[in-house]
Each structure stands twice: as structure tokens, then as C-alpha cells.
Amino acid sequence: MNRLPFNLWIVLIAAILIAWAFSLAGTQNQPGSIGYATFVQEVERNRVQEITIEGTRLTGRLSDGERFTTYATQPPSDTTVRDWIKRGINVVVAAPPRDNPFAGILIPILVLVLIFGLFWYFSRNFRGGGNDGAFSFTKSRAKVLTEAPKTNFRDVAGCDEAKEELKELVEFLKNPGRFHEMGARIPKGVLLVGPPGSGKTHIARAVAGEAKVPFITASGSDFVEMFVGVGAARVRDLFETAKRHAPCIIFIDEIDAVGRRRGGGVGGGNDEREQTLNQLLVEMDGFEKETSIIVMAATNRPDVLDPALLRPGRFDRQVPIDAPDVKGREQILKIHSKGKPLGEDVDLALLAKRTPGFVGADLENLLNEAALLAARDGRKKIAMKDLEEAADRVLMGPARKSLVITPKDREVTAYHEAGHALAAHFLENADPVHKLTIVPRGRAMGFMMPSRQDTLHWSKKRLTDQIAVALAGRVAEELVFDDVTTGAENDFRQATDLARRMITEWGMHKDFGPVAYQVREDTYLGGYDVRQYSEETARRIDEAVKALLEEQRERVVKLLTEKRDVLERVTQALLEYETLNAEQFVRVVEGLPVEEPPSEPPKDKEEKEVPRIVPKIKPGGALGGA
């Protein structure tokens, strides 16, 4: 239930109970009161000594001195009074109290005034003193920033194409007359779509800041209520507010909460949500041509929105705000690093290369985690090692340093990760190694982090090498221990998923050809598969997937058997150092010490110079994304 009506109903019920209690106070029996039937029995027993009659109210004293009060339905008759006197009871007849003729009218009026006064007070103060008082829950909950936000396009990075698309809106808001003179119609609505954390709300504020117009923001969930009609009323109020502040921008975040496709629940749909959507459609289509109001909305589920909401005249344009590329990530890191003291060794360009797939929120969180790590160590500047550790924390979780690991488990993990790393290093199309560690993080006992670059197209050779790398950890265990463990569960999932998609979606198997046997509906929150083949085809696909995995497994068995000595070197280095970066891993593979020997310190002039040759090693391997 909505909180405002619930609170008011509590106040209303409490006031009624108080009024009821006051109404009972006038007829409530006083202390020592008895029923009239009990009083008659006491008279028959001759236990009553005196009685005072005040109309229908009888008070008196019993033979034991106890006082009593009772009420008769009517004043006692003369015969009854004479009977009491014969019994020796001292009877006093007093004048009945005079009733106030206005009491019966004033008390109900005062109670009603109290009830509605409290109702009005709480309804007014709940919404901050609106004019509509008790009906303010139908008012829009949008926040109106009459002063333009201070955010501008200089504060937005990683989405240059989106900014170019939105600059046209800024020009219209600054000078709408120029467009109207040409008979042009500016888009009434712009839908920002992208994964969570990609900066959709941020760029909407930047548009308002650039145009220097008011910014009215609301969430899609603000409109949906359990009371039918409330959401539609809030939509009307939102657009009335916008017309008073035009030119302005209305921004509705998470619009899929109110804009979902209608008719999904046959016979059981949410009438309130559909009425709210209908009102939104009417308001957006009802703008006058010269109204300088632009509706911007954000969602990460454009696939569930109602088609009527996306047609021209409402949300004319969809602007994708996708995960930034390496250049965009570097620009975002520079923006979020403002105000943070960075050490001399920090290379944001290198960090951008190591974080493919990160969105703006991830990068901001990475820098914040690095600042926390530096502060925890008592340092004044953020070092590159802090950023590396923060990237690992964001991807895999914090290191589980307190976890008790047996030497056997530690050794198995080292061989497993070394197998992954060697396959990634020696296979031509695989991503090179960026980091190798047996320090547990999250649910992983260790991991090999590849140096992955932003890629739009994956070749068949690269995909098969990726499958081989995923299977290499289990193969290393088999070669060394002649046994297997449960540590390859996630590796099998990745390898099987890639193999199945190569066959059913990408047409990369000669026996199945360029046929889409399975369609994946990708969304920004994940995807789901739509199967489009028979049971017989499913059996053939399963056999082909298994054959492809076995083929790549045999490749890795052959590779690691040939490189068995390298596998042992990498494993021993892992057991000793626990973590190897790209340069250290390549040195171990080449049979060199993990750390390069230090240069010879300068000799004293009196000491005889002894020539010493130190080989100059060029670090191999590529540093890349996490």
C-alpha cells in the first residue's frame, strides 16, 4: 500500500477511536457503580441505608458503608419511593442536572474538526506543503532542477558518437526558432539504451547543462501504484510542470518499469500500469509543435518496451550508450581521477588497455577501490599496484588471504593455471597472458587473466584456440597427477558454450553449414536462446560439440606434453611467487630468472675494475586488458 494513504488512514482511525472514547465518557459508570438489578436485590435484602435520587441517577450508601451509583431507565415512581421509606431507607430527592442543549451538537462537530484537521495537517506536511493537501499523492514525484545542472559534455567521455547525436537537441533548446522557421520538427523523445553503469543518466544531465535549461527527472517506478488512476494523474502533473518550465528536459530513468509492452498478461494485466502508459503516450503525442520540451528516457531493456512508445512522434531516436572502447576508457579514467593524487608510475593508458568491457561505473569504482587501498596502507598517493589490485577486486573479488589451503590443493591449482597460461602463450590466435596467480579470489582458487583487446569480430581460429586454452587446465592435471579434480567446472562451461555457438549460431562447422539453428536474443542484462531445430538435429549437434571439444583437447595434450619442462618451471615459479605478471611469466618460459638481476654498483676509484657482462634481456609477451 502507498505510504501516504496508509499513514493518513492510521491517523483517521486513531481519531475515531479517541472520539468514541470521549463519547463513552459521558455514560461510563463511575467507580463503585452497580447494575440496577443488583441495586433492587440490595434493597430487598435491606442493605441500603440511604438513596439520593437525581433523575435516573441513584447514588447512596450500603449498610457496610460502601458507596454506590446506579442508573434507572426512568425516575423512580412515588410508590417505589414510599416503599423504600417504609423499609427505613433515608431517601433524598434532588433536582436532576440540567443538560446543555448544545452539547449533543458541539461535541460531534469538534470531533469531526479534530479528525479532518489532523488528516489535512499530515497530508500537507507529508508532501512538503502542497496546495492540494490530502490529494498530493496524485502529484508527480519528479525532481525539478530549475537551475541547469553544472554537468556538461566535457564531463562525459567514452561516447563521442552519442554526444554528437545529442548536440542537435542542445542547439534546438538554445535556439528553437531557427528550427521552427525551417518547418523542422525536433525529436520529441530520445531513448538512451545501454548496459547498467554506462552513463545514461550522466549524459542526460550533460544535455541539460549544455543547453542551460531546467532538468526534470523522475523514475519509471514513481508512476506505478496499486491505486488505479494515480500513475496517470502523476504523468499529467509531470507534463503540466514541464510546460510551466519550458524550454526544459524531462528525463525518465528506467522507463521499462512503466513502458512495458501491453497485453502481456491476458486477463490478468496490471490495469494501473497500462493506464499510466496510455497517459504517457497521450502526453507525448499531444505536444504542440512549438513546445520546447524534450523527453529523454533511459533503459537497459529496450526489447520489452511497447511499440507505440518507440514510434516516430514519441521516442523518435534511440541513442546507444555502449561500453567504451580503449580510448574512451582512458578519457573516463582521466575524468574520475581528478582530485585523486596519482603516483608517478600510474599509466592510465595502460590501465585502459587492461580493462576491456568496463563501463564508466566500473572504472569509477576501480579508482575508488585503489584510493581506499592506498589510504589503508597510509600512503599519500595512488600507485599502479593499487590500480592493478583494484582491477582484480572488481573482476574477481577480494583476495581470500585467510583461506587455509593444503599443499596438495595449492600444487594442483598451480599446475592447472600453468596449463592455461602455456596454452595461451604458445597457441597462435589465443590472447596472451596478462597475469597468472594462485591467490584465491571470490570462488576461484586461482586464475589466468588474458590480455584481451576490444574485438568486434572473432575468427574461427581464435575461437578454437580459446576453447583449447579453457581445456588446458584439466589437461595439465591429467598429465601430472594422472587424476582430475572439480576445478575445471567453469572451464568446461565456457568451452562448451563457445563450441555450441560456433555450430548453431555462427555457421562454423562443415557438417551444419551456414544455418542459424539457434537464435540468441541478446539484451543488455543477458541473453536467452531460442531453439529452432528438431530432436535429431539436437543429437547431431551434441555429437559435433563433443567432437570439437575432444579435438581441441588432443591439441592441448600434445602441446603440454612437448612443453612439460616449461610446465614444471612455470608451476614452481607460481608456488614460490604466487603471482606472475606478463613479463615475469615470459622470463620463466624462456628459462630466465623471474626478476632481472640488478646492475653492478659503481666501484671505488681505488678498487680495480673487473669486467662483468650482464645480459640485456628484452621482456617478451604483450601487456593487455584484464
From TrEMBL:
ATP binds at G194, P195, P196, G197, S198, G199, K200, T201. It is an enzyme of class 3 (hydrolase). The active site is at E417. Residues 592-626 are annotated as: Disordered. Residues 186-325 form the AAA+ ATPase domain. Pfam families: AAA, AAA_lid_3, FtsH_ext, Peptidase_M41. It is found in: Cell inner membrane; Membrane. One of its GO terms (cellular component) is plasma membrane. Residues 601-611 have a biased composition (Basic and acidic residues). It comes from the Bacteria. Zn(2+) binds at H416, H420, D491. Its EC number is 3.4.24.-. Belongs to the AAA ATPase family. HAMAP family: FtsH. Homohexamer. Acts as a processive, ATP-dependent zinc metallopeptidase for both cytoplasmic and membrane proteins. Plays a role in the quality control of integral membrane proteins. PANTHER family: ATP-DEPENDENT ZINC METALLOPROTEASE YME1L1, METALLOPROTEASE M41 FTSH. This is ATP-dependent zinc metalloprotease FtsH. The gene is ftsH.
